[in-house]
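User: Good morning. I'm curious how 2-acetamido-2-deoxy-beta-D-glucopyranose would be positioned relative to this chain. Could you predict the structure with it bound?
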Amino acid sequence: MVGGALGWQVHQRRNRALLLSGAILFFFIFVLRLHLTIPYFPSSLSDGVSSPSSSFNRDSSCVSFLNDVAWDPHNSSSYYWARSPQVVACQFQRLARANASDLLSGSWVVVAGDSQARLFVVSLLGLVLDSEEMEAIRGDLFKRHSDYRHVVGEIGLKLDFVWAPYEANLTGLVMEFKRNLNYPDVLVMGSGLWHMLHLTNSSDYGVWLTSLRNELVGSGFSAHLFWLGMPRLINSMLNTEEKRVKMSDAVVAAYDREIYQSKLLRQFGGGPLLLLDVESLSRKCGVSCTVDGMHYDGVVYEAAVHVMLNTLRI
Ligand SMILES: *[C@@H]1O[C@H](CO)[C@@H](O)[C@H](O)[C@H]1NC(C)=O
Ligand SMILES: *[C@@H]1O[C@H](CO)[C@@H](O)[C@H](O)[C@H]1NC(C)=O
Ligand SMILES: *[C@@H]1O[C@H](CO)[C@@H](O)[C@H](O)[C@H]1NC(C)=O
Ligand SMILES: *[C@@H]1O[C@H](CO)[C@@H](O)[C@H](O)[C@H]1NC(C)=O
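Assistant: Good morning! Here's the predicted structure, ligand included:
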């Protein structure tokens, strides 16, 4: 549970439960059948916010639609959740500053990874801070290859960015939380690009992901756990020859396979981490949303932040 948000969530849930129609129920029964075939389904993500009520069906099915975001083809800064009946029933929404702040108040959020994770932090702070506050911290935020902490005093949000370009760094971080018995409320992790560029060995990547998964499963985490997926790489736009060679489409596909095979993700194999699907979000935003084929405009990470926040509301 995220501090301060529970009352609000319960209220939301009650409202939503009332909105269930017969047609939607039919759909849930169908989805529930699919879910029952997943062998391992961790409870940690819904700790404290799920109750054995009728909304259970809705919650677990909505998780699979969280990343169903579409982009306005005429305006690359405009995105919305897909308008299919199933997605509409989940009532996902872009949260305004006050609502995002409510949801995150009193919580400790840790985001660990490479430059994609840093961009995610920028978007998250951009949502809870006003533009003046954002300007004031911009310099610190963009110091490359360093950790960063920001406390938003008014709402008691503690946000840590941990520079962790390799999977080993993420596993080390998780071990540290366990050693100190001190766990964040929300943990967002992601890596892969550094491994791809510097080691270029997908099976080694898979080995590390499996060890990260093993470290997380059965740990004391009751946190909301997320995996920040790799962006879509546009090979011809990558800015060095080395990147174009090593980060080829075939290598990217092999790395993707390892992510699924490691059973790290909740959506694929019932793993501990919920995917924030940056690949899908960046692909939908499109070529015009990136200048180097790897780092995307803020709007892509902002969408990922909203996907995460909506998960916290489920
Ligand atoms: C594009 O979308 C953004 C965000 O929704 C909006 O603020 C902006 O006015 C839109 N631009 C155009 C040209 O419609
Ligand atoms: C956002 O906050 C406002 C004011 O606090 C509230 O009226 C509104 O219902 C909230 N929106 C959502 C989606 O909860
Ligand atoms: C991250 O992991 C790499 C590879 O194991 C290691 O060389 C590096 O020192 C670690 N970096 C940090 C910041 O822990
Ligand atoms: C790739 O990684 C695997 C697993 O760590 C290792 O067994 C293999 O030797 C590596 N391959 C190369 C070419 O380094």
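The chain has two domains: 1-37, 92-312. Confidence is low (pLDDT under 50) at residues 3-58.
Let me know if you'd like a different ligand tried.
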